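Sequence and fold:
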Amino acid sequence: MAFEGLQPIPLLDLKAQHSTIRDEVRAAIDRVVDSQHFILGPELDAFETEVAQYCGAAHAIGVSSGSDALLISLMAADIGPGDEVITTAYSFFASAGAIARVGATPIFVDIRADDYNIDPQRVEAAVTSRTRALLPVHLFGQTAEMGPIMDVAQKYKLVVIEDAAQAIGAEYRGLRAGSIGDLGCFSFYPSKNLGGFGDGGLVTTNDANLAERLRLLRGHGAKPKYHSRMIGGNFRLDALQAAILRVKLRHLDEWTSGRRRNAERYRSLLGGLAPQDSRLVVAPAEMPERRHVYNQFVIRTREREALRAHLNQARIGSEVYYPIPLHLMDAFSYLGEKPGAYPESESAAAESLALPIYAELTADMQRRVATTIRAWQERQ
């Protein structure tokens, strides 16, 4: 196949999205600039109200990043040295990094091969007398199987912190991500389905006391000003980011529908699911009773590096999320975990590859991606 002269298909095209909302965004930015109210204030209050309603939660607290959302949630739950928090072995570093930052110990559990999320059947076996919380991650835009996880939490009186950084609008049994556990953590990093113009994050909760603690903690624990009741930090979401996110939130359902449409088209173009032990491409599964929002469309193949090189030659963007499972990260070497401890996580790290999935991706672009993959498959 000749690739000369082909236009690139990027993994993500934020310029295409921005071109559709440029005037709305400029008006929102001008509104904040004219007000000269950049920290907290009415713009953030309005965004928190709107996004809480969207997520089906009673409270939403804007914070400085998704990583800080995890950190401040653990702080609000009084989790620290001597405590253990159970989480997945396969995620972005921040999921476990926040646990370590508060002095607690991350306890890893393997994932299921079909949805990349923590295996709920393995969670209870990881509970000890020091376990204080469960931190499931809704990876790539699909929730973990929360029913059994919540059952374990109730049985052992554990806090549940949902890492929903990639899953705003995702659902489990009709409940939105971030509204199921005690706390839900979101990221507005620009590549997310709801992305800002820089870093930003959010915590949701249905608990009024936790919401009040979160608001205190994001502003150095102070209420009133300069009277700190607890040790917090500077975890505030800027008013400019809140204003931009308010614009984007109005379009989020439309963009999510586009991502879901594109996921179904990929499945059709790629011929559906291949056997799990195939050397060829395995499309991601959308599990029963869930609404996948496809922050990423992640396929699997045992010949990932060869496929990625082929796509790169064809000027098609792709990305590996994530090449090293958490238990094998240098940063967590002190835990003493060894290769082979979590085989499904290790397999996913070796085989997964994300394809372009954004709403502005056209049918012709997807057909080119699929044709390129099929041409590669035929040579295997």
Summary: The first helix runs from residue 14 to 35. Residues 252-378 form a domain with the Aspartate Aminotransferase, domain 1 fold (CATH 3.90.1150.10). The CA atoms of residues 76 and 210 lie 6 Å apart. The chain has twelve helices and twelve strands.
